[in-house]
């Protein structure tokens, strides 16, 4: 299982090679659009998690009457 988690073992050389491959695959103009899309996705995910946390807190403050 530890062999699958190779991300912790990446060095500077490997990161540079990955960055070059990404640059070649997507091109210089597509990378900002890609990052913008990823940023929007992360923001939507955080907003969703916050909404769920708010709902849980609201439910904890207002116990149901039986």
Walk me through this protein's architecture.
The chain has one helix at residues 12-61. It is an all-alpha fold and 66 residues long. It is elongated.
Structure at a glance:
The chain is mainly α and 66 residues long.
> What radius of gyration results from the CA coordinates?
21 Å
Query: What spatial form do the alpha-carbon principal axes imply?
Result: elongated
**Termini separation (Å)?**
48 Å
Number of strands: 0
| Major beta-sheet overview | none
The parts where pLDDT drops under 50 for at least 5 residues are: none
**Amount of beta strand:** under 5%
Helix content: over 70%
Oligomer: single chain
Rounded average pLDDT: 81
The helix count comes to: 1
User: Helix/strand/pairing class, anyone?
Assistant: mainly alpha
Element string (H = helix, E = strand): H
Tell me the layout of helices and strands.
Layout: H1 12-61
Keywords:
elongated, 66 residues, mainly alpha, 0% strand
